[in-house]
Amino acid sequence: MTKSFRSHIVLAATVLLAGSMCFAEDGAAIYKSKCAMCHGAAGTPSPAMAKAMGIKPVSDPSMATLTVAQITSTVKNGKGKMKPIVGLTDAQVSAVAAYFKTLK
Fold first, then answer.
1. Cα-trace Rg, the chain
2. Which domains, from first to last, does the chain contain?
3. What is the pLDDT of residue 16?
């Protein structure tokens, strides 16, 4: 393998890695696009949504005790009136669950 060819391979790998990182969504962005419409931007649903869907705010003591694993399960499987959220990878579900735990 020539030095020039190896350089091209390294450059291509670097560009691919950087490009994939640019498209990765963090938990906050996923929450905003998939969850905030029901759960509220800061984790406090509107009074109408809370009543209609039975959604508790993140400030509720029962919500504070949820683990990331429990939130992940709810996102994947649904719970109560909440349907499972489809179209997310396991990494995205984990990221949004971890983000949800940061809301106060």
1. 19
2. 25-102 (1.10.760.10)
3. 46
